[in-house]
Design brief:
By secondary structure, the chain is an alpha/beta fold. It is 36% helix and 15% strand.
Length: 335
């Protein structure tokens, strides 16, 4: 296994956006080990994009040597410079996500003269039995994507530095462009994270004469959203514990009635009986929620869909951007 020191020396730097005024802007450094596209990677990319829209900051990024450099990587630019040709910069702030702490030498983690923003997307950070927990002792401004993560991290008493919640944002305009009035799928079970339960529920519902589609294979983000947009009702099966679980919010934007069992990180926006159904995460409770969803009166169903749309409106990407850029502006005072 490569040492952290060697990995740090081999990292590449990202480009500055056009028109950056050297010396006038604060340089914000991100780190990425990009080996596949997932929701966590996309959220880091969105935060990188937020910094590109700051009038006071310019983003840079270092990739690990084993990172994929192709169109699957959201930072990929076929007309831009290769990673190894990008210039070195002295950062004014770091944005670290999850294992990114390992890029810094231990001494730099404990006493960094450069402010550190620690993006937390998982409940793992607040679990003393998990490896990310040990990073809480290092000084940082911790930005949590859900209030559940923020509350759990604060409750540990182990976080060195402020813990703030910035409401998760998503591109509402892009999602609404995919929304369709033609809902040709009465019920979709999206079971990418719990195939066994999803397959069992699908078999029982089909056996009871229901028209149900089952999704267990990984799709591109676009194709997954298209499947959600076609569904009248969506049963989403997350992991038992999630930091936020964005697909539930995406399905709300796309006009589906959402059934999403309790996974901790969805409690702040999946309001049971208000804008969705959020049963306990066990088979009988989920089956009961499906039966309830499919028996709703048209009026009751529309009320829940309207409330779901209102919930989604509060989770815009622009709102997330404004909040993060305000934090960056205040970072010298916070640090």
């Amino acid at each position: 296994m490569r040492s952290v020191t060697l990995l740090r020396k081999l990292l590449r730097f990202g480009p500055s956006p056009p028109g950056a005024r050297e010396g006038a802007l604060k340089h914000v450094m991100f780190f990425r080990r990009f080996t596949k596209l997932d929701g966590g990677q996309l959220k880091v990319w969105e935060y990188f994009s937020h910094v590109k829209h700051s009038p006071h900051h310019v983003p840079h990024i270092r990739f690990s040597p084993d990172s994929i450099w192709s169109p699957v990587n959201p930072w990929y630019d076929p007309g831009g410079p290769l990673p190894e040709t990008w210039p070195d910069v002295a950062p004014d702030a770091y944005v670290l996500n999850a294992n990114d702490w390992r890029i810094l030498e231990p001494a730099a983690r404990d006493a960094s003269p450069v402010p550190i923003v620690n993006l937390l997307q998982s409940m793992i950070a607040a679990d003393p039995t998990q490896h990310l927990y040990k990073f809480l002792k290092h000084k940082a401004v911790r930005v949590c994507v859900s209030p559940e993560i923020a509350d759990a991290v604060r409750a540990t008493g182990a976080a060195n530095g402020p813990v703030v919640h910035i409401r998760m944002g998503t591109d509402l305009g892009r999602l609404r462009a995919l929304a369709t009035a033609e809902k040709d799928c009465p019920l979709l079970i999206a079971a990418l994270k719990n195939r066994e339960l999803g397959t069992a529920l699908h078999a029982r519902l089909v056996g009871a004469g229901r028209r149900v589609e089952l999704l267990t294979d990984q799709l591109s983000p676009h194709d997954f959203l298209v499947r959600l947009s076609r569904a009248r009702t969506v049963l989403l099966l997350p992991y038992a514990v999630e930091g936020f679980f964005l697909p539930a919010l995406e399905a709300m934007v796309l006009g589906a009635l959402v059934i999403c069992p309790d996974c901790v990180g969805n409690r702040s926006f999946c309001l049971d009986g208000v804008n969705c159904l959020r049963p306990a995460y066990e088979a009988s409770a989920i089956e009961g929620a499906v039966a309830e969803a499919l028996s709703l009166t048209p009026d009751r169903r529309q009320v829940m869909l309207d409330r779901a749309a209102a919930t989604a409106d509060r989770h815009s990407l622009m709102g997330e951007r404004r909040a993060f850029l305000e934090l960056l502006d205040a970072l010298p005072r916070i640090w």
